[in-house]
Write a structure and sequence with these properties.
Layout lengths: L1 E6 L3 H10 L7 E7 L2 H11 L3 E5 L7 H11 L4 E6 L4 H10 L3 E4 L4 H17 L5 H11 L2 H14 L7 H8 L7 E9 L2 H8 L4 H15 L5 E4 L6 E8 L5 H22 L3 E5 L4 E2 L3 H13 L13 E4 L6 H16 L6 H9 L3 H17 L5 H20 L5 H14 L7 H20 L4 H4 L2 H11 L6 H8 L3 H12 L3 H17 L6 H7 L5 H12 L3 H10 L1
Parallel strand pairs: 1-2, 1-3, 3-4, 4-5, 9-11
Antiparallel strand pairs: 6-8, 6-9, 6-10, 7-8
Helix pairs in contact: 2-3, 3-4, 7-12, 10-11, 14-15, 15-18, 16-17, 16-18, 23-25
């Protein structure tokens, strides 16, 4: 029979361990308790327990300090850390101190009894099991995939926090200098749809199922995880033998694509995928990820071929120079299909409330995209940026408050910004979003209803001495510069700047008739801070300098 010692400064935590643990069924007939590390050490020396469960953060003596002393005093016991802190540093300290496992609060019955069972098995088998197997057991039982994901993600971010290769080799059982891998990058293009239909809206459950499926199908050494910085992106580490040639590379790529095909059939996913062109050492995975990401950005979302309806990918093997040249040409064509070429007619249509014509401009753009031979992911991202620019331009032509403008653009970002979809889905999503925007703007009435050339003219007559600019009126009436100038000149036959200058010069003539008013003061009173600039403007408009005009008026 065995003894167990439970050490925690929180009595409810000890009570939970007592209640949830199947102690007797595992042959443990004595359960001892201690409220802190120092008391725990005294009981350890006195009772020589077989299993010790200790909290990591306690008064008087921290769990790490207790473990260090306890292992020295009683190395044959099996130590289990119980903590509410999911922190790598605590995990590392527990491993160094010789802990068998690391349980997170709140304690789960199944996990607790699994640890108890394993502790008993190790007591029975070999009390002096080597440290590497213990560390491996810790990783396995404290959510090893999460820890591996953290380590790999930090390597790819080049953060430096876990770049001590000796620790990584020990934790992951890998030789950093001899282990090489290709990196796979996967975008789930219909993520929202799959999560809603198959996982009740729970994206975390989808990623868990998908990445575990990839791990199983890509081989026991492969590891996949969701990229924290990419809402739809999954990274797959594909280990390869050092010095692997094209034959093994081809086999790994085929297995990678076959896994995506199989999961696509299971979950109805539509994915875009790519692998790195290079093969990278463990300590250079950040470069491998950048390589894979660059390849992913070139994936043609218009690629369709039979069973590949659920997968588009950029396989680098087997392309000849002619294929590369044709691809370069098609990418240039895709780049030429830009929304910015339609920006002016789109915005002009809105200025005259031509919402149907503005919608037609968007529809024609998407028909060009869908009819193209190549439309890579990088072009999709650029299209979303251009769509947002159109949305901003549309909003700014109507009387929309700052708060409403922000709300509209936030709705755009929540649906589109930073996302990648199939071209057909992106077409549908953007058209629906802009139709909703047009309906919202239509309620504001025509911009022309707000724009009054007579009011602008009257404003200039009253404020000619102020700093007037075209932006003064475009901001006031929510119209473009081009439209404002076109409407004003259409009514009066001259432009706003021309009229402003005319009013200022007429007022200057009136002031110059008074010999007591200095030339500089005249300029300032009609809106010119620089007297030299006023002199030049006056002479250009009147044909005489201010002094010449004054003398002429006084002598007449």
């Amino acid at each position: 029979m065995y003894k167990a010692l439970l050490i925690d400064d929180e009595q409810p935590a000890i009570q939970a361990l007592r209640v949830l643990g199947q102690w007797e069924s595992h042959g443990i007939d004595t359960i001892l308790e201690a409220s802190d590390g120092r008391q725990g050490l005294d009981m350890l020396v006195m009772h020589k327990p077989d299993i010790v469960m200790v909290d990591m953060k306690m008064p008087r003596m921290m769990g790490t300090e207790f473990l260090g002393e306890a292992v020295r005093l009683h190395p044959d016991a099996k130590y289990v850390v119980v903590s509410g802190f999911d922190d790598f540093q605590y995990t590392k300290q527990a491993i160094k101190a010789g802990a068998l496992d690391y349980l997170l609060k709140p304690i789960k019955r199944q996990e607790l009894n699994g640890v108890i069972e394993r502790a008993v098995q190790e007591l029975q088998a070999d009390a002096n099991a080597n440290r590497k197997n213990i560390a491996s057991g810790i990783l396995y039982n404290i959510s090893a995939p999460l820890l591996k994901e953290k380590l790999f993600a930090d390597l790819m971010d080049n953060s430096g926090r876990y770049h001590q290769m000796e620790e990584l080799e020990h934790l992951l059982h890998l030789d950093a200098e001899r282990t090489t891998a290709m990196l796979g990058a996967v975008l789930v293009l219909n993520l929202d749809d799959v999560c809603q239909r198959r996982f009740k809206g729970d994206a975390a459950s989808f990623y868990y199922a998908f990445t575990n499926g990839m791990n199983e199908l890509c081989g026991e050494d492969a590891f996949s995880f969701k990229r924290a910085k990419g809402a739809q992106e999954i990274v797959v580490v594909l280990p390869m033998a050092e010095g692997a040639g094209n034959e093994q590379r081809t086999a790994v790529i085929r297995q990678f694509l076959a896994a995506l095909h199989k999961l696509g059939g299971m979950f109805d996913t539509v994915c875009a995928a790519a692998v790195s062109e290079g093969i990278y050492r463990l300590d250079a995975l950040n470069a491998g990820y950048e390589d894979a990401s660059q390849q992913l950005e070139q994936v043609n979302l218009l690629q369709r071929a039979g069973k590949e309806e659920q997968l588009v990918y950029n396989e680098q093997l087997g392309r000849d120079a002619g294929e590369d040249a044709r691809r370069e040409t098609s990418v240039q064509i895709a780049a030429a299909i830009s929304l910015l070429t339609r920006k002016e007619p789109f915005l002009q249509a809105l200025e005259s409330s031509g919402f149907r014509y503005a919608e037609q401009q968007l529809e024609e753009y998407w028909q060009m995209v869908l009819a193209a031979a190549d439309f890579p992911i990088e072009r999709v991202r650029m299209s979303i940026i251009e769509l947002r620019m159109l949305a901003e331009g549309a909003i700014d032509r109507f009387s929309v408050s700052r708060e409403e403008r922000q709300s509209i653009l936030m709705s755009f970002d929540s649906v589109l910004t930073g996302r990648v979809f199939t071209c057909a889905a992106l077409h549908e999503i953007t058209m629906n979003w802009f139709r909703t925007l047009f309906d919202r703007l239509a309620e504001r009435g025509k911009p022309d209803d707000k724009l009054s050339p007579d009011k602008i003219k009257a404003y200039i007559d009253a404020h000619y001495a102020e700093d007037l600019s075209i932006a003064t009126f475009t901001r006031q009436y929510f119209v473009s510069k081009e439209h404002l100038l076109r409407v004003f000149k259409g009514k009066y036959g001259f432009g706003i700047h021309e009229y402003t200058t005319k009013v200022r010069m007429e007022q200057a003539k009136r002031l110059l008739a008074d010999p007591d008013v200095r030339i500089q003061s005249v300029g300032e009173q009609v809106g010119f801070e620089d007297v030299n600039y006023f002199r030049k403007a006056f002479k250009k408009h009147v044909g005489l300098s201010p002094n010449e005009y004054r003398e002429q008026k006084l002598n007449s």
